[in-house]
Each structure stands twice: as structure tokens, then as C-alpha cells.
Amino acid sequence: LLLSDTIPCLLSPWSEWSDCSVTCGKGMRTRQRMLKSAAELGDCNEELEQAEKCMLPECPIHCELTEWSQWSECNTSCGKGHMIRTRMIKIEPQFGGTACPETVQRTKCRVRKCLRGPGMEKRRWKEAR
């Protein structure tokens, strides 16, 4: 039974490498081959599978924002004005990720009617004269 030492492993050629395990970024790919000689004829210690790292273009990173702040106070103490609210960019987009939408919003506000100051009365009185 010394024959077993002299019979080499019979192996099929390696298969093509598989596709990368990811569609973007870092992944793995593998290839296989088959044992063609009968196992009884001796131990075959050759590897039947290989794996290696593969790298595809970076995955897109989409913009991420914080929640909106509370609306600010109205910027006037009487009459028409505006108030704003803001949000911050947590993650800047990269590699074709979605762009960031607006980070400031503005809306109209109206506080009680302004009372005419004494200066207004004087002017009107002069015009009337």
C-alpha cells in the first residue's frame, strides 16, 4: 500500500473568481477547485477554496441632518416680521450621496399692531396745517 504516496492529487483547474460579495466598498471573493482523484488513493491536502479581499468604488454616503430647532421669536416687537429655525449637517454627503436640503427655514409672523408713536401725530398735524 505504498502506492498512495506516489499518486499525486488530481485537481480540476481553479474556477473563475466569484463576484465581489458587495456592490460597493470592501468585500470578499472566492474561487474553488474540485478533487478529481478518488479520496481512497491517499490524503490530498491541497486547498479546494481560496478567498481574497476585493474593493469596489466607495459606497455613497448620504447627507444626514439634525432635527429642526424650535422657531425663533418673531424679530419685531410689533407689526409684521419673520422667525427662523435651523438644523445642522451631521454627515456631509460623499461619493455621490444625496445632497443636503435647506438648513434654514423662514416664516412670516405678525405681532400686535404697532401703535403710532408721538412723532407720527406731529407730522400729520403739520401736513394738515
UniProtKB/TrEMBL annotation:
<dbReference type="GO" id="GO:0007155">
    <property type="term" value="P:cell adhesion"/>
</dbReference>
<keyword id="KW-0732">Signal</keyword>
<protein>
    <submittedName>
        <fullName>SPON1 protein</fullName>
    </submittedName>
</protein>
<dbReference type="InterPro" id="IPR036383">
    <property type="entry name" value="TSP1_rpt_sf"/>
</dbReference>
<dbReference type="Pfam" id="PF00090">
    <property type="entry name" value="TSP_1"/>
</dbReference>
<dbReference type="InterPro" id="IPR051418">
    <property type="entry name" value="Spondin/Thrombospondin_T1"/>
</dbReference>
<dbReference type="GO" id="GO:0031012">
    <property type="term" value="C:extracellular matrix"/>
</dbReference>
<dbReference type="InterPro" id="IPR044004">
    <property type="entry name" value="TSP1_spondin_dom"/>
</dbReference>
<dbReference type="Pfam" id="PF19028">
    <property type="entry name" value="TSP1_spondin"/>
</dbReference>
<keyword id="KW-0325">Glycoprotein</keyword>
<feature type="domain" description="Spondin-like TSP1">
    <location>
        <begin position="63"/>
        <end position="114"/>
    </location>
</feature>
<dbReference type="InterPro" id="IPR000884">
    <property type="entry name" value="TSP1_rpt"/>
</dbReference>
<keyword id="KW-1015">Disulfide bond</keyword>
